[in-house]
Amino acid sequence: MKACFKCGAEKPLTEYYKHKGMADGHLNKCKTCTKKDVRHHREDNILRYRAHDRARGYRQSAEYQREYRAKNKEKQRAHSAVAYKLESPESCELCGEETKLHAHHHDYTKPLDVNWLCPACHHQLHAKESLLGGLAGPPFSKGID
């Protein structure tokens, strides 16, 4: 249990976002108060957020897609090869969840050598790789060490 410094309510730790910088590993403001603060901050700065959202949308434009594909031909070939030649299995190789899976390449020079991951595991793997400085590592059998 922990008391929120904003609303004063005492709640279980599951009602607090994780935060490595805090002594107990959780933010000192409950999720409800945090969401309320984020909503108010966005409302108070809506013009800045709208400009940012519009700029992010540029990635969906045909021009951006052409430029990206031209710069990343090897990635594009690998993604196309997977789409045309491989069938996705039923479940994630790490957690076993049955959902739409992503094909994760450890090496784009081997386009058909992929691991099939659920979106959550795929995101977790990329987050781990970015912490390690982009070291992809070899394909795995079970678990993200």
Structure commentary:
This protein is an alpha+beta fold and 145 residues long. It folds into 2 domains: 2-58, no CATH class; 76-131. 43% of the residues lie in helices and 14% in strands. It has helices at 31-44, 46-57, 62-71, 73-85, 119-131, and strands spanning 2-3, 10-11, 16-18, 26-30, 102-105, 114-117. The strands form 3 sheets. It has a two-stranded antiparallel sheet. The longest helix has 14 residues, at 31-44.
- Helix share, percent: 40-55%
Overall average pLDDT: 88
Structural class: alpha+beta
Rounded to the nearest angstrom, the radius of gyration is 21 Å
Element pattern in H and E? EEEEHHHHEEH
Q: Which residues sit in consecutive blocks of at least 5 with pLDDT less than 50?
A: 141-145
Oligomer kind: single chain
The strand order across the widest sheet is 1-2
Instruction: Tell me how many strands there are.
Output: 6
Domains (count): 2
Approximately how much beta-strand content do the residues carry? 5-15%
Morphology: extended
| Distinct helical segment count | 5
Give the helices and strands, then pairings.
Layout: E1 2-3, E2 10-11, E3 16-18, E4 26-30, H1 31-44, H2 46-57, H3 62-71, H4 73-85, E5 102-105, E6 114-117, H5 119-131
Antiparallel strand pairs: 1-2, 3-4, 5-6
Quick recap of the structure?
This protein is an alpha+beta fold and 145 residues long. It contains five helices and six strands.
